[in-house]
Structures are given as C-alpha cells and as structure tokens.
Specification:
By secondary structure, the chain is an all-alpha fold. 68% of the residues lie in helices and 0% in strands. The chain has nine helices and no strands.
Amino acid sequence: MNKEAFGKLVIDAQESLYRVAKSILYSDEDCKDAISEAITKGFEKLDTLKKDKFAKTWLTRILINECYDILRESKNVEDIEAHTYELGYEEPDSYSELYEAIMKLEVDYRTAIVLYYIEGYKIKEIATMVDSTESAVKKRLARARDKLRLYLEGGLKDEDR
C-alpha cells in the first residue's frame, strides 16, 4: 500500500476508528491521542502490511493496542472505570439508552460489541485484532448481550457489573 492509499484509508475510516477507540476509552482526548498514535505508527510501519485488503483491520488492531497502552498508563484502571461519573465524566443527553448500556460494560465486552455489531467485523477478524481466540470472542459477545439485555430491562445495576 502506498502513502496516498493509506491517507485515503485513514480519511474513510475516521468514524470507525473513533467508535473503536471510544469503546475502550472514555475520554475524547484519550481517543484522539490513541487515533493519532495509531495513524502515526501505521504510517511508519506501512511496509509491514502484507495485503492491502486487510489494511483497515491492521490499522484497527494498532489502534486497539494504543488504547490499551493508554489504559495501562493510568495508575488504577479499575478505579477509573468504577468512578467515571465521580471524576466528572458526564454522558451527553443525546446518547441513547443502548449506548449508555454499552459504555457500562467491561472493556473487553464493549470492544467485542462495537467491532462486531457496529463495525461489522467477523469473529475471526476480531480475534486477530484483540489477540484472542474465536471462542473467547464468541463468549464475550454472548456475555455482553446478556448484560446489555439486563441493563436495558433494568435488572442489572452498575454495581453488578
């Protein structure tokens, strides 16, 4: 893939990259940082891409790794996730009930849901992106659907996550 094609890929995938980053990170600033870093690393390592048809999957995997790096940099990720609202993060009123329920899921579940249902990746591709097995991805999707159902029906509270 040449640099021009990579530039077009980045432009075409902007919304997709943001949704994936947002499924892992809460802060828009962290999302922007992760996306910028992923694009930079992708550009620098463009010669390592073996098949152009997998370019978006490849870039998404780089982004996921960047998002997890940002999470690791946080001193206590669990504390941050557990007290997100206390730290001043507020969901805009325009977000749907489903989006709010998705954001209450654990990171692994959120990522699987967004990659599968919103971005349309196949389970095999997701397994490659998140460095997991296909059966683990299927299990995460099933558990995430169950938790979403409970959240939306009012049977699962934040503290039950």
